[in-house]
C-alpha cells in the first residue's frame, strides 16, 4: 500500500507543477498582449522614407542591328553629344556606328566601271547606227 500512496503523491506533484506552469504561461501572454499606448488624434505631416535595393530595368529595350557587316571605325553621337554606347538614348535616324566602307567601296567602284563600259557600248552602237 505504501507504493500506491507514493505513486499517487508523485502524480499529484507532477499535476500541480503542470498546472502551475500553464497558469504562469497564460499570465505571461496576457501581460505582454495587453500593453497599449494611446495618443490623441492630431493633424500633421507624415514623413515616410522607403529604401530599397534592386535592379532598375527599362520599360522598353530594343536590339539594333545593321544590314551590312564590317569593322566599326567610329560611333555616332547621342542627344547630349557623347559617343553612343550601351544604354544611350537615341532617336530614329541617328547614326549609331560608322562601318568601314573600304569593303563595299571596291564593289561600288567595280559597278561604276561596269556601268561606264556599258554606256560606252551603247554610244558605240548608236554611232554604228547613225
Sheet/helix structural class? mainly alpha
Count every helix, treating DSSP H or I runs of 4 or more residues as helices.
2
> Ranges with pLDDT <50 over ≥5 residues?
none
What is the approximate shape?
A: rod-shaped
What's the pLDDT, averaged over the residues? Answer: 83
Number of β-strand runs: 2
User: What is the strand arrangement across the widest sheet?
Assistant: 1-2
Proportion of residues in β-strands = 5-15%
Measured as a percent range, the helix fraction is 40-55%
- Order of SSEs, N→C? HEEH
What distance lies between the first and last C-alpha atoms, to the nearest angstrom? Answer: 150 Å
Radius of gyration: 45 Å
Task: Provide keyphrases for this structure.
2 strands, 130 residues, 2 helices, mainly alpha
Summarize the structure.
The chain is mainly α and 130 residues long. It contains 2 helices and 2 strands; from the N terminus they run H-E-E-H.
Give a verbal description of the structure.
This protein has helices spanning 2-33, 102-129, and strands at 72-75, 97-99. Among the domains are: 1-28; 69-99, no CATH class; 101-130. By secondary structure, the chain is mainly alpha-helical. The chain has 2 helices and 2 strands. The protein is 46% helix and 5% strand. The chain is rod-shaped, with a radius of gyration of 45 Å. A two-stranded antiparallel sheet has the order 1-2. The mean pLDDT is 83.
Summarize the SSE layout with pairings.
Elements: H1 2-33, E1 72-75, E2 97-99, H2 102-129
Antiparallel strand pairs: 1-2
Amino acid at each position: 500500500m505504501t507504493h500506491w500512496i507514493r505513486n499517487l503523491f508523485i502524480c499529484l506533484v507532477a499535476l500541480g507543477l503542470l498546472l502551475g506552469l500553464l497558469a504562469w504561461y497564460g499570465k505571461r501572454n496576457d501581460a505582454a498582449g495587453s500593453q497599449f499606448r494611446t495618443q490623441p488624434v492630431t493633424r500633421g505631416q507624415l514623413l515616410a522614407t522607403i529604401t530599397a535595393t534592386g535592379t532598375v530595368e527599362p520599360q522598353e529595350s530594343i536590339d539594333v542591328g545593321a544590314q551590312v557587316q564590317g569593322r566599326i571605325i567610329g560611333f555616332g553621337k547621342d542627344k547630349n553629344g557623347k559617343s553612343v554606347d550601351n544604354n544611350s538614348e537615341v532617336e530614329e535616324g541617328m547614326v549609331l556606328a560608322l562601318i568601314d566602307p573600304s569593303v563595299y567601296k571596291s564593289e561600288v567602284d567595280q559597278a561604276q566601271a561596269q556601268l561606264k563600259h556599258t554606256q560606252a557600248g551603247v554610244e558605240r552602237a548608236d554611232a554604228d547606227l547613225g
